[in-house]
Amino acid sequence: MPSAEKALPFLFAAYTIIWVVVFGYTLSIGARQRKLAQDLDLIKRAIEKRAAR
Amino acid sequence: MPQEKPAVGPVPGLRPGRGGLNSIAVITFVLIAVAQYLIFMYVPDDATLGLIQRIFYFHVASAWNALLAFSVVFAASILYLSKGERRYDALALSSAEIGVLFTTLVLITGPIWGKVSWNQWWTWDPRLTTTLILWFIYVAYLLIRLAADEPEKRARYAAVFGIIGFIDVPIVFFSIRWWRTIHPVVITWQGAAMEKSMLQTMIVSFIAFSFLFVYLLIHRLRIEAMQDEVAQLKERLQGSRG
Amino acid sequence: MSFLRKVGLIAWKDLRAEFRTKEMISAMLIFALLVIAIFAFAFDPTRDEVRVIFAGLIWVAFFFAGILGLNRSFAGERINDAIHGLMLSPVDRSAIYFGKLLGTWVFMTIVEIVALPIFIVMFNYTPAGSWLLAGTAILLATLGFVAVGTFLAALTANTKASEVLLPVILFPVVIPVVIAAVEATRGVFGGLPPADFVTWFKVLGVYDAVFVAVPFLLFEYLLEV
Q: What is the number of structural domains in chain C?
């Protein structure tokens, strides 16, 4: 059975990777949403401008 | 020709608002925190495998999420082909992406365990090998979506592949398992009967990860809904120019 | 016109076109031989250990050659947009699938029949066992490969980077065929008792049944205009 000292860094690495990946994905979704919200905003304003003519 | 309606919630009538998603996020966070606590403070070291066995809980929970995700892809693909509604396509894509994410996690945590327990990064263990093929199949699914131009064609081709890929999975699993019995590998995951506290922790991990899956899915679906809105508004904008 | 007759006509069209030029079959054959030659240089063919992996080597060669054939099965239709001509003709969509499948299956089998004796000679391999069993295994495995392959080739034919995409989406799905083909061939050629490898024939049987039926059901979704 591998010793706890040898295993600990690997265990830590495994859980860290899980967290980085899941968190990273969540953040990337958030970033994509923010960009889309900006685009939506731009388009809505363009439509309003057009309607105002 | 199938009607292109904009993506709404994954289930008819269910459209979680900002508040809804936040509640799910909070519950997910709490459950995961509890699971982490149980994993590191509550369960004892495994008698034979030692400290590294603690990877097991989130490793298996990730595999569960992957399977869950791909089942959703399968169902959504069938629904899309039969009904042609855009929301099923959005659901399939979002679920596939998340599925690949969790499959990748399984493929990363598995070898870490292997390295510590048997000093081998990759053993051709049937379950891990099947997971590898699973990864390839659903990456292929995502690549198909990149390769097709028109959104309607893209959705159709992906849906068709989503069905084929999922049906293939059990066949792949059994083939690899029989293959491995002919060329046996001493090293497998053989989980001994689990102690009660380990079982409890496992269940909590499963529930926590299920909530995580739902949270990520809804969060990801938002992107599809927003993209559809942008496309619709762009059309209106271009229409009004005429 | 009966369904079978339509299937036969489509297959016959492809077979006749190919036999006029024999372009594709020769390319497939040369490619298979090249793969084996590369293996020969990579793994000294005179060593006994190489005999052990003979079954694996020939199937690698066959599958890679098969991909060539699959890529071409719908490529021909892209010229002159012939695929639309096919679709407009009063033919049940799935007849196109079976017709193409049949044609490619014949091509791949011809390549295998020609290449296998050459491989046996190149590696000084002495296959044991019944040729009937070996032939059955080869035919079943080729069918499974071509069944999914034709379907996915039709899918990728209309996409960008289609030649690159096809192997990427095909190989994960045909893994069971790869495993079963190699194990069945190994068992037969190795003279092992049938009980040892009958499972693999079953796997091929199940795979073929499933992956001829499912594409048959889904093919119309690929060809919607």
A: 1
Is A27 part of the contact surface with chain B (CB cutoff 8 Å)? no
- Per-residue pLDDT at B6: 45
CA distance B7 to B87: 4
> Which chain B residues are Cβ-neighbours of C151 within 8 angstroms?
164
Q: Are B227 and A40 in contact (CB under 8 A)?
A: no
Q: Which chain B residue lies closest to A24 (C-alpha atoms)? A: B101
* Average pLDDT for C139-163: 92
Across the range B22-26, mean pLDDT stands at: 88
- Tell me the chain B residues in contact with residue C211 when contact means C-beta distances shorter than 8 Å: 164, 168
Phi-psi region of B195 (alpha: psi -120 to 50; beta: other; left: phi over 0): beta
- Cβ neighbors of A28 (< 8 A, separation 6 or more) are none
End-to-end CA distance of chain C: 24
Domain region containing C69: 3-223
- What does the block give as tokens for B199? 């079982």
Residue A18 to residue B107: CA distance in whole angstroms: 11
The ipTM assigned to this model is 0.89
Question: Rounded to two decimals, what is the model's pTM?
Answer: 0.89
B109 with A17: Cβ contact below 8 A: yes
Angle at the Cα of C186 from the Cα atoms of C180 and C188, rounded to 5 degrees: 100
**Chain C contact for B179 (CB, 8 A cutoff):** yes
The domain segmentation of chain B, as residue ranges, is 56-188
CB neighbourhood size of C42 (10 A)? 8
Let me know: does B138 contact B101? Beta carbons within 8 Å. Answer: no
